[in-house]
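Entry 14. Ran structure prediction on the chain below.
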Amino acid sequence: MRIFAALVNAVPVDVAMIDSSAVKAQRASAGRHRRAAAQAIGRSRGGRTTKIHAICDGVGRLRAFRLSPGNIAEITVALALLDIAPVGQTFLAGKGYDATPFRNRVADRGARVVIPNNATRKRPYPFDPAAYRDRNAIERMFCRAQGLAANRHPLRPVRHQLRFRRCPRRRVLWWV
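Output, structure tokens:
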């Protein structure tokens, strides 16, 4: 983790973006139900899943991530994730992050917030669709992460496997 932290702090951030992706867990990945929460595995309509919440920069390099059970909403983990990651000058997020406390926390850290307004919002915030187009970098980052994990069979999304602990080469390749 020290190598990852050094890489994160070495490169300044202009654009940051947040999103989450669900990873399907195997049937026996958490064992008993009591251990499922400790392994960040939750039950949802799709079965047992884990959500990977991540913040990346404008190029798609991972800056910070957290794991949560798959039945937890994105916004609940976003505030905790925001405290450990740099936000840059522009911060992009999806409609799932359109909450006034979240917008205010990002704006207090000095970033311009680019989040599309939820359809139920009574007073819409200004939105820049041209800046929002670059948000596909975080989707590509999740695809790269799944590609790195593909050679581990079977994929079991538990906390100790998603920390890049055993392979320092993967930590460096992520940033190349």
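Residues 2-174 form a domain with the Nucleotidyltransferase; domain 5 fold (CATH 3.30.420). Will compare against last week's run tomorrow.
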